[in-house]
Design brief:
By secondary structure, the chain is α/β, with parallel strands linked by helices. The protein has two domains: 119 residues, NAD(P)-binding Rossmann-like Domain (Rossmann fold); 178 residues, NAD(P)-binding Rossmann-like Domain (Rossmann fold, 3-Layer(aba) Sandwich), CATH 3.40.50.720. Helix content is 34%, strand content 14%. It is built from twelve helices and twelve strands. The strands form two sheets. A seven-stranded parallel β-sheet has the order 8-7-6-9-10-11-12. Helix 4 links the parallel strand 4 and strand 5. Helix 5 crosses helix 8.
Length: 329
């Protein structure tokens, strides 16, 4: 009988969820969880782990040291789309494939981006706060400048599954849509523009690109200054792409008239951070992709990859260029 695969599931995914997910393969898998949620607990659990479901929060990041602590590691599955909590290069150097659940939350995140854009254009959160406080700010609201979304020039940074779906939805509303990505997409319905040109012509900028060494700080103070005066920003990517301090400065200068932020450089956002009290910021706790359907999509894709790994079939959505055929060490 083949020895069961030892699979390590990292928090915050709960044990009951993981056991339910892997129940059909209980005889082929030996599930373990770290004894403590710290680096020592992670490294101890990695010593004989073959398959790992990673920690999407990054608290137990699979960095180069963690990869080195896992001599039997054969496959890493991320419970989401982002891969900034795992060291792709360190895994590739060991010929360990890493996979995400690409596309699982694309519709959910794209819909959030459109909803947030509507909220910014009409100051919905600001109006709600004012009315709840006893006011009736009809004239004040008009003085702030209300907009119709279809008249905004939308620029999308990134054209993966989320960026492409967001482009489609904004275009369906009648907005002119352009995009920039690291690779030009010949089949894209939106118009490609160089990054600086995109920013200069975007009334509404949507960030939907992965966080990598190349994209960290990509939309910094210099690039934010290229936006038209009074532009709007929607960030469904990662906080490090548009540094929080630079976004705040652009808001305070008026370059940005509003921002909808689902992500931040440090999460949770510090309780005293000035973004929390800025009148023209819509805040969200990194939940743009958090719908029942997207979670079902994610769990299904994870389960299918784990099944493929232990059944000798190639896994899908490998993101670090390694052969998708899983091999025991």
């Amino acid at each position: 009988m083949t020895e069961p695969w030892r699979i390590l599931a990292l928090p915050p995914l709960g044990e009951d969820l993981i056991r339910g997910l892997l129940a059909p393969y209980a005889d082929a898998l030996d599930l373990v969880l770290p004894g403590t949620r710290d680096r020592a607990g992670l490294h101890a659990a990695l010593a004989d782990a073959e398959l790992v479901i990673s920690d999407f929060t990054g608290d137990l990041a699979l960095d180069a040291d963690a990869v080195a602590a896992a001599p039997r590691l054969a496959f890493v599955q991320t419970p989401g789309v982002g891969t900034d909590a795992i060291d792709l290069d360190a895994l590739a150097a060991r010929d360990v494939p890493a996979a995400n659940t690409a596309g699982s939350n694309a519709r959910a995140v794209a819909e959030w981006a459109v909803g947030a854009a509507f909220a910014l254009c009409r100051h919905l959160a600001w109006s709600d706060r004012a009315v709840r406080a006893g006011g009736w700010p009809q004239l004040d609201l008009l003085a702030l400048g209300t907009r119709e979304l279809h008249l905004q020039r939308v620029g999308i940074v990134g054209h993966g599954a989320i960026g492409a779906e967001a482009a489609r939805l904004f275009a369906a509303l009648g907005a002119p849509v352009s995009y920039w990505s690291r690779r030009r997409r010949p089949d894209a319905a939106a118009t490609y523009r160089d990054l600086d040109d995109l920013l200069a012509g975007s009334d509404l900028l949507v960030l939907a690109i992965p966080l990598t060494d190349e994209t960290r700080g990509l939309i910094d103070a210099r690039r934010l200054a290229l936006l038209p005066q009074g532009a709007l920003l929607v960030n469904v990517a990662r906080g490090g792409i548009a540094p929080d301090a630079d976004v705040l400065a652009a808001l305070e200068s008026g370059r940005l008239a509003g921002a909808a932020l689902d992500v931040f450089e440090t999460e949770p956002l510090d309780a005293a951070h000035p973004l929390r009290s800025h009148e023209h910021v819509l805040l969200s706790p990194h939940a743009a992709g958090g719908t029942g359907q997207s979670q079902l999509n994610m769990v299904t894709m994870m389960r299918e990859n784990i099944e493929a790994a232990i059944s000798g079939r190639p896994v899908t959505n490998v993101v670090n260029g390694v052969d998708p055929q899983i091999r025991r060490r």
